[in-house]
Amino acid sequence: MYFAFILSAVNTLTVTYYLAIERAQVLKDIFPSFLIYVVFFVVIGVPILITVGIIHFKKTSARKAEVDISIETNPYVIRNLVNSELIINLNVRLARIILNSEQGKKIDEEDLKTLQEVLNTTEDFLSNRTVAKERDLEFFRKINQSGRL
């Protein structure tokens, strides 16, 4: 993919120099050779393009739109995210119980109750889950709003 960017840049530089700059005397005086034109573009043009790209990415809703389109075209993206949340939540709870057990502490009722709630939530979610992404989106929105499962 990046090789295509390089080829596109070389193509653009070549076409613009030989079709536009070489035929306009004013521009030909500024850029007497192709090498000077390329050096000017690399030194001045690339940083300007990078800055404009960063501003576009940060100040507009381009990234959000890209993510929304990605989720719409590939519903498994959101499914992987939900699966990761379920797995991490369960692993954290189990790790806490194992760590307490290794330290000689007895497993208290609060940890068991919390683990049972996580298991019930996960089993309930998985029992009603279909291939459609609506259930995953609903679950993710619930996590996102409350900050927890």
Q: Strand tally, please?
A: 0
Shape: elongated
Q: Give helix and strand order, one letter per element, not per position.
A: HHHHHHH
Rounded to the nearest angstrom, the distance between the terminal CA atoms is 39 Å
**Rg:** 28 Å
Count of discrete domains? 2
Count of alpha and pi helical runs:
7
The average pLDDT score comes to: 85
- Main β sheet profile: none
Structural class: mainly alpha
Question: Hey, roughly how much beta strand do the residues contain?
Answer: under 5%
Low-confidence stretches: none
Helix content: over 70%
Report what the structure shows:
- This protein is mainly alpha-helical and 149 residues long.
- The chain contains seven helices and no strands.
- The protein folds into two domains: 2-60; 74-146.
- The protein is elongated and about 85 Å long.
- The two termini are 39 Å apart.
- Helix 5 packs across helix 7 (134-146).
